[in-house]
User: Fold these one by one.
Assistant:
Number 1:
Amino acid sequence: MSSGVARYEVQGTIAVITLCNPPVNAFSHSLRIGIVDGIDRAEGDPHVVATVIIGDDFGFSAGADITEFEMTSVTAEPNLREVIEVIENSTKPVVAAIGGNCLGGGLELALGCHYRVAVAGAKLGLPEVKLGLIPGAGGTQRLPRLVGVETACNLIVSGVTTPAEQFWGAQLLNLFVEERLREQAVEFARLVAAHRKTHRRVRDLPVVHEKPEAFFLFARNMVGAMAKNFPAPMKCLEAVQASVKRSFDEGTRVERQLFGELMISDESRALRHLFFAERYAGKAADIGEDVRIREIKSVAVVGAGTMGRGIAITFLTAGIPVVIVDTEQDTLDRAMSAIRQTFEDQVTKRKLKSDKAEKSMAMLTSTLAYKDLKDVDLVIEAVFEDLSVKEAIFLKLDAVCKQGTILASNTSTLNLNKIAKFTKRPQDVVGAHFFSPANVMKLLEVIRAEHTSPDVLSTLLKLARRIKKTAVVSGVCDGFIGNRMIKQYVLQAMLLLNEGSSIQQIDGALEKFGMAMGPFKMCDLAGNDIAWAIRRRLYAEDPAMPRLAIADRLCEMGRFGQKSNLGWYRYEANRRDALVDPLVNELVREERNNMAIISRAIADEEIVQRCIYALVNEGARILDEGIAQRASDIDIVYIYGYGFPVHRGGPMFFADSVGLSSVKRTMQRFAETSGPTAGFWKPARLLEILAAQGKTFN
Ligand code: NAD
């Protein structure tokens, strides 16, 4: 049901329409009706000389209600365009009183008013492009009439939010006030009604630019190069260009046409999906908002290696004091100077002010003694991936830490239930799986062990927002959500290599699909030795397990990836470019001969389908087992942790857009031609069910 009301009252001779639809005053259907009713009442009341539209406590308006996008109510009359027309055609002047956020449809409505008054702290913007859209209620036609073509293009193409004061002095704002918005807007409305005979409509202003053709040619080149997989930025330009070339009515027709095309585009659907996915992620479905959150005022990081350092930087950046622990003073000293260096690099790159860097470093201490951890609120363990090492540490933590301290492990593969059992407080144990580099990567998998208490889980999820991470809850399994799936993806890449594709073809095909880097480059980055160690353990446990002969030989040659400057590619010192190494291609040929494989030509389409559907099938199992709470959580893991292309919305959303029965049929086709690995393509139970019912994951 649509919510939101527009309160109508008359203050002397001024009608005041107050938008009230928490939390952001989105223009729901009922709010739109309320605004039109308010304007009609003001028009019909002979005592009213002007109207002020103002937001309640939640800012002016953040625009369209995107929860309505998939519903019929979004187009139900009056739509926003019609509301704005009613305002613009009102015979009595209408003043927008802008405080807080005035975004998207909110700004479009304000542009339809005859005057705009803004208060300090107000923010303006047309962020539709971030959802793969263009403004659809006249924004692309009215904004250039007030701020000029170039500024309008900048604002609309970038979708940035700008403080209102930056428009003070431009035509966009008629008055800028420091405080008392409502009173001053009402007073302003009284004055314009008394002293002006006519009240100009923005639509009647000319659009002026000296050399529009040259400007748009330049803008198209710039935007085209940056927009890549997203059509919306170019359509923004097209719409603004229409404001220059055509009449207002024709321009709005162009805008509407482009908006409609984008609304049904795959890219916009993906972006809208991710907008909601991000809001759902980080919420435990079975835990209420009322659970008491533990206060985190200090953190200890155990292990001052790659991950420990990145985790420490993350907390320090968020203003949370950190004590870092390791076994040798030397290791601690190296970690301290590496952390300092990272902050200094940020200062050099002007990403951080030097006083902020100093402040962060002042909050960092190091110690060899566990007793120094007795008062911390949270410990994150990031030592070697070895259960016996972790056991020793959790025993110590249990002995020294105060009651209520949250004990988290950054393990990527070990069983968290076992780790929790090393303590007498399994309810306080949780997984905090950061991704490398921990101070850069946005994803945090929060692992809920068997006995993790709801308040511990909720505390970590809330903390994730404070340290600017996007958290996703995962249950306990080998590799959790992300790494468990990536194993299947990499396996397919290896099988494709066996069968005849080249390393470069496989990486190239997946990069063309949009992955930030192909699987072989990814393995080189992560370190080939890690997967090799796991494989050797599995070979020992199960001698019948098929060998990945090429990958094994690569590791036997010490080609561990970027860290040894040699892997699937070769690397030059201090450079990241992956250079083709003919030696590896020769090795591939040799191993194919050893395996008596007659290589075949494989199309890029097959490469993409096999690797991505491998992710999808494992994702379906993860969902079915309840390891992930929602398909959209899996999408978030892949977007933020594995460089999955944003315009495809994540692996599960991508499979939904292809159609699950089509995905299943393709997998069956692969099974028929996969010989000994046919079992890989057995569709997950959930995929079977949804495909049969014509349903989707999301
Ligand atoms: P690392 O080898 O770089 O660092 C481990 C650190 O732990 C070393 O400084 C070592 O001296 C210290 N350490 C060992 N035993 C200790 C003890 N008893 N007390 C205190 N310190 C001790 O390892 P890393 O790559 O930072 O990985 C750490 C953890 O993070 C592992 O569990 C790993 O699985 C996980 N992880 C790693 C990555 C990654 O990409 N490197 C990503 C996610 C999670």
Note: The chain is about 50% helix and 10% strand.
Number 2:
Amino acid sequence: MAILKLARMGHPVLRRKAEAVADPTAEDVRRLVGDMIDSLDDSGGVGLAAPQIHVSRRVVIFRVPTPEGKSGELSVLINPEVELLPGAVATGWEGCLSVPGLRGAVPRATRIRYRGFDLAGKLVDREAEGYHARIVQHECDHLDGVLYPQRMADFRLLAFVEEWRRYGEEFPLSADE
Ligand code: NI
């Protein structure tokens, strides 16, 4: 397994619709996920999609942080599908390893259901809310060539990380319908 260079905004692979995986249990998929885990752990992010390591296939991985802020259990989703459930839309801060140095406030559905396959070929079928739902929507967007700035409603809420750390709490973010 290897730590791979991450594609940054502007690279065509991030705009492409990624290809479905024919066999989630195939050896090359296992290797791809291994590389994604190494690359994610090296970067310190919470999630990664295959196109971010220049592989245009429908695979995402993520770790939802625990309430104490610790790194959570790893999820691997192959050929994921996201269904937005009825409920509020909330605006929250996001960053992306392909958009380094920036944070932006993005409106997202607060409740989703998602399905996909793990490396054993087993169906994963979960409901999620809040930050968990946000991470899944962000990562799965990568598979359709969408980066979070394209989801932003207000570009005044795009900031450099250093400034965001200093002033981010001054931005009024609210749950809207
Ligand atoms: Ni991202």
Note: The pocket of nickel (II) ion is lined by residues 96-98, 138, 142 (CB under 6 Å).
